[in-house]
Amino acid sequence: MATGYAELLRTRHAARLLTGTLIGRLPNATAALAIVLFTRSQGGSYALAGALSAVYGIGTAIGQPLLGRAVDLYGQPRVMFPAAVASGLGMVLFAVVGLDPLPAAYAAMVIAGICTPPLEGGLRALWPQVLRRPDQVHTAYALDAVAQEVMFSIGPLMVTLLVAAWSEAAALLVINAIGVLGALSVVVSQPSRAWRSAPREAHWLGALRSPGMLVLIGSFFFVGLALGAIAVASVAYADEYGGGMVSSYLLSALGVGALVGGVCYGARTWPGVPERRLRLLVAALALGYLPLAIVPGVVAMTVLAGVAGVFLAPALACAFVVVDRHAPRGTVTEAFSWLVTTFGVGAAVGTAAAGPAVEVGGVVAGFAVPGAAGLAALLVLIGCRGVLAGDVVRADTPTVGDAGAENDRNGADEPGFRAGHQA
């Protein structure tokens, strides 16, 4: 198992790009916690902290696909590093001004959110040119999903340690300075500087003009919704089953399950069509969420949470491959950014939906939300399987490793658009 990952990381530029991207995304991974802690330290309420975090999240959801399209048009260095600096300066403004005047704090959140660089989509656009072999690209997608679980576990711990050592403002400044350095490490690398998106047909919808992309976005909105609901339901469960660290046990088990599943999934090459495999993985994911509504004791519930997480990273890794096959030519970074954005929006909706569910029906109803969302994600893929089957790249389109190929290899003719124009 470790051999495939070791070979991948020994490939020139691979370890640097993966590490730089993860470091560059630290501000985004820790923003919610850092904003809440800083707002509370300034005397703000939890409601205000939640509002500021929501503004940052909405800004990120808007900015990611827009910046992803800009990357496809103008290249990674010209977009990603300026965006990282601007986002960092937004957080600096927040740390310096604080909550007075409040409009300045909201403006800082808007700047920091919208300017968050699309490093995640950018990395997936680089993998085919860096690794060349399709099996290694698929392994890289799985490793990427696993690394995210590690980052989202370590990031909040870093914020907590920085707050304990210095202050909440220092945590904001240090984390965002580290993020800018991570983005810089990526954009000065040879693959990032050399990468160019394929010529694209002019269309204001960009990546969204692909029916297959719309199906993926619809499905993974519900996967994100399930995860957001689990976070809220876990807190409600902890209130009834001992409080304290119980919710963290469940969420940690969910992350460990995803970590194990992602490592195992990426350790081998999978035969067959990825669209069919994605349906199976999402089906397994949905089945893993359903038993959570049983709400047994803490030990059994922790085990169920771990099982529920096993298929998350594999489903994400397979989804990246499917995006790779369905994104219109010249929209690779934008396409990945749309998937990331939709996943995040779904998580926010799930957080909002689980609260009322718990109020009305208790913990069981709270955990029924992710089960229902998982089934909805599966139904989207099943109901639209014909769309995914018919929207795949042509047989004569270049594959990963071919000269000049990029991550989005959909070479299908798109009637109504004239070649030679940029979107």
TrEMBL record:
<feature type="transmembrane region" description="Helical">
    <location>
        <begin position="17"/>
        <end position="39"/>
    </location>
</feature>
<feature type="transmembrane region" description="Helical">
    <location>
        <begin position="213"/>
        <end position="237"/>
    </location>
</feature>
<dbReference type="Pfam" id="PF07690">
    <property type="entry name" value="MFS_1"/>
</dbReference>
<dbReference type="InterPro" id="IPR011701">
    <property type="entry name" value="MFS"/>
</dbReference>
<keyword id="KW-0812">Transmembrane</keyword>
<dbReference type="GO" id="GO:0022857">
    <property type="term" value="F:transmembrane transporter activity"/>
</dbReference>
<feature type="transmembrane region" description="Helical">
    <location>
        <begin position="280"/>
        <end position="299"/>
    </location>
</feature>
<feature type="transmembrane region" description="Helical">
    <location>
        <begin position="305"/>
        <end position="323"/>
    </location>
</feature>
<keyword id="KW-0472">Membrane</keyword>
<keyword id="KW-1133">Transmembrane helix</keyword>
<feature type="region of interest" description="Disordered">
    <location>
        <begin position="399"/>
        <end position="423"/>
    </location>
</feature>
<feature type="transmembrane region" description="Helical">
    <location>
        <begin position="360"/>
        <end position="384"/>
    </location>
</feature>
<feature type="transmembrane region" description="Helical">
    <location>
        <begin position="169"/>
        <end position="192"/>
    </location>
</feature>
<feature type="transmembrane region" description="Helical">
    <location>
        <begin position="79"/>
        <end position="99"/>
    </location>
</feature>
<feature type="transmembrane region" description="Helical">
    <location>
        <begin position="249"/>
        <end position="268"/>
    </location>
</feature>
<feature type="transmembrane region" description="Helical">
    <location>
        <begin position="335"/>
        <end position="354"/>
    </location>
</feature>
<feature type="transmembrane region" description="Helical">
    <location>
        <begin position="45"/>
        <end position="67"/>
    </location>
</feature>
<protein>
    <submittedName>
        <fullName>MFS family permease</fullName>
    </submittedName>
</protein>
<feature type="compositionally biased region" description="Basic and acidic residues">
    <location>
        <begin position="406"/>
        <end position="416"/>
    </location>
</feature>
<dbReference type="InterPro" id="IPR036259">
    <property type="entry name" value="MFS_trans_sf"/>
</dbReference>
